[in-house]
Amino acid sequence: MIKSDIKKGDIYYASLNPVVGSEQKGERPVVVIQNNLGNKYSPTVIIAPLTEVIKKADLPTHITIFRNDFLKYDSMILLEQLRTIDKSRLISYLGKLKDNQLQKIDNALIKTLSINIIGYLFSLGIGEYNEKKNERIYSDYYFKETKTRDSIKSNKQKRSKRNGH
After folding, report:
1. Domain count, the chain
2. Cα-based distances in Å from 54 to 27, 122, 155
3. Is 93 in the same domain as 128?
4. Which one of 49, 94, 98, 147 has the fewest beta carbons within 10 angstroms of its own beta carbon?
């Protein structure tokens, strides 16, 4: 297998032994979480293991994917079990997740890792701060409508008045 062709969202059969404690073990499917630049140049890859045991599906760190052409069983991606492995642990390519499944993973990772996405967008210059109005304004490019601290506060006050509070 050519290890430089690994892409985010690819599912491989991998060897996760040896392990310590409650880490997922054995040879099992894993999904590649790492970005494609890292996948191309790094000798390691960040993965999340899959399990056939569907428990606690409502946890924000668990994403269910259903049996398909390359998975024999309904499976759950365990995003609380992220780990970095050497590419030599990847045994065989199984398939690729769909874009909507990758989006679910990205959303879950934002929660799992407590990523401050708003702060990140501001650091990229996507939002701006209006000192006169004391509000943050976000680019419509990333949000369907402009959100400001004042408008959010105003909407809460309107709802409160409608509800008789």
Report:
1. 2
2. 18, 38, 39
3. no
4. 98
